[in-house]
Amino acid sequence: MCIKERKCRPALWAIVPFNGPIRSALRVHPTATGLLFYLSTLAPSSHSLPRPPVSSPDPAITMAISPHHLLLLLLAAAAASAGANNLVGELESLRSRSPSGVIHLTDTSVTRFLSSSTRPYSVLVFFDATSLHSKSDLHLPQLRREFALLSAAFQANNPASSDLFFADIEFSESQHSFSQFGVNSLPHVRLIRPHHSRLADSEHMDQSHFSRLADSMVDFVEARTGLQVGPITRPPLVSRNQIILLVLMFLASIPFVIKRILQGDTLLHDRRVWMAGALFVYFFSVSGGMYGIIRHTPMFITDRADPNKLVFFYQGSGMQLGAEGFAVGSLYTLVGLMIAVVTHLLVKVESLQTQRFAMVAVMIVGWWAVRKVIFLDNWKTGYSIHTFWPSSWR
Amino acid sequence: MAETEADAAAAPAAAPGRLRNAFGGVLCAFTLILIGVLAFSIRLFSVIKYESVIHEFDPYFNYRVTQFLSKNGIYEFWNWFDDRTWYPLGRVIGGTVYPGLTLTAGSIWWLVNALNIPLSVETVCVFTAPIFSAFASWATYLLTKEAKGTGAGLMAAAILGMVPSYISRSVAGSYDNEAVAIFALVFTFYLYVKTLNTGSLFYATLNALSYFYMVCSWGGYTFIINLIPMHVLLCIVTGRYSSRLYIAYAPLVILGTLLAALVPVVGFNAVLTSEHFASFLVFIILHVVAFVSYIKGLLTPRLFKMAMTLVITIGMAVCFAVVAILVALVASSPTKGWSGRSLSLLDPTYASKYIPIIASVSEHQPPTWPSYFMDINVLAFLVPAGIISCFLPLSDASSFMVLYLVTAVYFSGVMVRLMLVLAPAACILSGIALSSAFDVLTRSMKFQLSKLFDDGSAISGNGSTEGSSASTVNTNSSKSENKTEKSEAAPKEKSSKKNRRKEKEVTESVPAKSKKEKRLSVLPLEASVIGTLLLIILGGFYVVHCVWAAAEAYSAPSIVLTSRSREGLHVFDDFREAYAWLSHNTDVDDKVASWWDYGYQTTAMANRTVIVDNNTWNNTHIATVGTAMSSPEKAAWEIFDSLDVKYVLVVFGGLVGYPSDDINKFLWMVRIGGGEFPHIKEPDYLRDGQYRVDAQATPTMLNCLMYKLCYYRFVETDGKGFDRVRGYEIGKKHFKLTHFEEVFTTHHWMVRIYKLKPQKNRIRAKLRKLKSGSKSSSTLAAGQKKNPWQ
């Protein structure tokens, strides 16, 4: 990943293609107190699909770090030295205090545990920022949970191992360490091996290793350290007792449900419910809602050239945004519903005048909707549908 | 269409009515023939624009199997062990293919030849799909007719005849399972609905046979065996149980499952996998419900109430026991008895999370909204109206249509490939929608026109006005009566109490309805005229789109490529050139290695043994080839030599800009190879997370066999080595091959064939001789000349 120092201009936003679910571009604003992360936009693409027309190959980021900070940190790093064995013991005791075995590091403890040149252990560090937990596109809380699972799995498989420790750092507490590691985009995980003398040399976990969450993090750790992490055990969604309770409740409710079904007065006997359900499934599917679920596409993206402008319609048939799908899906459904209203409802209206007006309205709206969809489709896919006439007619 | 329906259905009485009916019938049959011709001929663009040739990859395998069948007969085919593929493992063809398509085309060929029409097997194979799409449109007519009458049936058949989604899988030359399977699917549904409407055991048996044909033809039969139970369950839950339902379902499960188990590729899966369990569960529930309704008929209400509690307790106990057994069975298998593809339908995110290989295939992607517009076009607008029409009034048949549509549209949302299953449902519902819209509009036009006419002639006499307008309305109401009668008269058996009650309801409701209709069932004249015109324009746009899609989008055979430039049409026939070279210049028993995509074509067209092919049943074998392709030359040579490979075939698009070549597929070779052989590591081939072959490429990438075989001597073409697909110059331009040797490169460089040098012995001999002394050097030179591969 290339990281560029860039002068900050408010009109510069990056649209970033990404393969995994979580890739983002962050930009840091120097005028704000502390560092503010701006989330730009994300657009998924896969190998077979065309790339977005406006894209930068990598998440680009700007960070303002004053050079004398760095100098200070380097000095501090050089000064720090301690007995390796003491450090291992301390780390182990810190680890035992955390339920999942993830050690919380701060600026001081980073200097203490990681800056010394002789370390007999590796540390996998998760860079966290509480202020960014609200950005749902970054999936930070989720990744943090997965990281804890990874740590727990490692501990379960290698109890009392002092080869690898898991740690996390919070941004607002430990800005020094972030700059020391050269971390300026999140999510970010680094592995510091014993032979890494400078912190910035440590290995960065690639975005692709977040794609399958803890399972792919395991691959990374195992490939780089040669240690066995072991199977990831996730806590079940509902606990055993809850399952038993649910099953019991279900069993108890069966006779009542059957009784009501036999009487024929449930919601299931209402045709309108079925009709609405069928129409909804249809609407949801033709608008490509499932595409949004599988690919995690956002509803809209911001324009790269103009951050105040939102892009709702994406050109290129391989990919769609949520909003455009639902807009077109509702046009599909709208026309169908209008035809149904005319054929089944309007015929029963007595006043000819009402019928006339309603039909004119329906026809105008229907004409517009169909034209709109055809236009959008041609624009999006770039197809030009043409007729085939005998050549003598031309 | 609606006029036809009116003609066919409005039969007052006696002679004129019968004549009209006969006329309607003839017209209907004639229309159906025309629809069949349309469905057949719209699929011929590929033959007209290209030639009569089998398309793509899988059809070549089917073609080869059909050839074998027609040459050796059915028993040989059933026991066929194919040693031309998956060398050295081979493949039992008879037990691993869905034989429906092959047997169908084989019998057509046999029949045609028995009639002394000398058609080649290839011709029969090319035209099987268009023929069966004509059949499919007729089956659609029958199915829709069962639900909503003749008019809707004809409309739906015409729409299905040219729906682009179906065309994409059934153009002439696309000789694949789906070609016959869609017909079988629709026909099975028709027979199910027919049985449901008539309660006849005859149709139930036919239904099971048709289901058997579907099982023979396509793995998609699981859709049927899950959809029909769902419908039965729906009927039971909404209180629509009848003995007709029992007859429609119970024989299908028993006979159908027995017959399905006869197909070797399905075998015991028909009772052992989770895809089929829903049908057995519903079978049990149906029996419980049937028993309850039987008891209900025997006992007085009070006694029944008592018996009810008893039955429920016993029934529940039995149900739970069965459910427990099923759950235990399911839980004992690692994937819970479901195949990966089925699971990814139930949980859409499953494949992308756990099975990248399924998620990677382009036809398993979720579709975007333009895909719907491309594949079912304006039907997307009409379907909601069709859904509502099906609910007014809701019958067993129309509820089945709605259920079919809803499940199909959901599945198509998960996988673009299943758009094919959605297409018939969308056609049926659009046909229903269009037909009912035309019905209303033309009826109002007729009524208003006659009123207008009568108003004009009202000066002469007022009485006639009322009379004639009343008669028009009468025609309308009698028509609707007739229709309801027709659909309700269909159920023959009278014993069921419920049925009788229902009929009573209908007879009660009809007069009320017709009274209502007498007053208000029409729309204003001019609006109806414009509405009709608009609908016709919409239909016209659909026709234009379908013809365009058939001609431009879906008719390319992909074995012959064309490109249109300023100088005119340019044809790339490199694939057949290469396969012909192989069959003419190599020994019959030589083994050819290539990526699995080209396996079927190599066996079918070049008749040479391949290592892997498109039937990806052995992942390790594929991974071996992938590993060889991603290894350096020497290691690759050793792998290929251990497999007795003599020639290696690669597809290269860099010169002409053909994007689906082996370099673009290379990531899968690495990924699949690395999955089995850990010394192949994907990061070694990646620069910044991307596969590159330019100057920034990794050394591993530039040294692997695939790179070398693709780009060997490439720099000689333009002096720079500019790759037109990737859009940059290649990284390593000048290199020599040590273990392979180029033997053939096609006209546009799209296929390149290399021969493995018989190197090991010679080099050793050479070294020894060099060491032994200089006097033998002259003989060595002579020996080198003799051996052209050194």
UniProtKB/TrEMBL annotation, chain A:
Predominant location of this chain?
A: endoplasmic reticulum
Q: What topology does the record note for this protein and the membrane?
A: Multi-pass membrane protein
Tagged with keyword Manganese: no
Q: What is this protein called?
A: Dolichyl-diphosphooligosaccharide--protein glycosyltransferase subunit 3
User: What is the source species?
Assistant: Lolium multiflorum (Italian ryegrass)
What does the UniProt function comment say about this protein?
Answer: Subunit of the oligosaccharyl transferase (OST) complex that catalyzes the initial transfer of a defined glycan (Glc(3)Man(9)GlcNAc(2) in eukaryotes) from the lipid carrier dolichol-pyrophosphate to an asparagine residue within an Asn-X-Ser/Thr consensus motif in nascent polypeptide chains, the first step in protein N-glycosylation. N-glycosylation occurs cotranslationally and the complex associates with the Sec61 complex at the channel-forming translocon complex that mediates protein translocation across the endoplasmic reticulum (ER). All subunits are required for a maximal enzyme activity.
User: Gene3D superfamilies attached here?
Assistant: Glutaredoxin
Q: Which Pfam families match?
A: OST3_OST6
**Quaternary data:** Component of the oligosaccharyltransferase (OST) complex.
Q: Which UniProt keywords apply?
A: Endoplasmic reticulum, Membrane, Signal, Transmembrane, Transmembrane helix
Q: Which GO BP terms sit in this record?
A: protein N-linked glycosylation via asparagine
Q: Name one GO cellular component term.
A: oligosaccharyltransferase complex
**Localization:** Endoplasmic reticulum membrane
The answer on whether this UniProt entry bears the keyword Cell division reads no
Transmembrane segment boundaries: 243-262, 274-294, 326-347, 353-370
Q: Which family does it belong to?
A: Belongs to the OST3/OST6 family.
UniProtKB/TrEMBL annotation, chain B:
> What class does this enzyme belong to in the EC scheme?
transferase
Q: Which cofactor does it need?
A: Mg(2+); Mn(2+)
Q: Where is the composition biased (Low complexity)?
A: 773-783
Q: Which UniProt keywords apply?
A: Endoplasmic reticulum, Glycoprotein, Glycosyltransferase, Magnesium, Manganese, Membrane, Metal-binding, Transferase, Transmembrane, Transmembrane helix
Metabolic or biological pathway: Protein modification; protein glycosylation
Q: How does it sit in the membrane?
A: Multi-pass membrane protein
The chain positions of domain STT3/PglB/AglB core read 589-648
Q: Where is the composition biased (Basic and acidic residues)?
A: 480-507
- Region: Disordered, residue numbers: 462-513, 769-790
Q: Which GO terms describe its molecular function?
A: dolichyl-diphosphooligosaccharide-protein glycotransferase activity; metal ion binding
- Entry's EC annotation: 2.4.99.18
Residues annotated as domain Oligosaccharyl transferase STT3 N-terminal: 27-429
Indicate where this protein resides in the cell: Endoplasmic reticulum membrane
Q: Does the keyword Repeat apply?
A: no
Query: Which is one Gene Ontology cellular component term of this protein?
Result: endoplasmic reticulum membrane
Subunit record text: Component of the oligosaccharyltransferase (OST) complex.
- State its role: Catalytic subunit of the oligosaccharyl transferase (OST) complex that catalyzes the initial transfer of a defined glycan (Glc(3)Man(9)GlcNAc(2) in eukaryotes) from the lipid carrier dolichol-pyrophosphate to an asparagine residue within an Asn-X-Ser/Thr consensus motif in nascent polypeptide chains, the first step in protein N-glycosylation. N-glycosylation occurs cotranslationally and the complex associates with the Sec61 complex at the channel-forming translocon complex that mediates protein translocation across the endoplasmic reticulum (ER).
Family recorded in the similarity comment = Belongs to the STT3 family.
Q: What is this protein called?
A: dolichyl-diphosphooligosaccharide--protein glycotransferase
The organism of origin for this protein: Lolium multiflorum
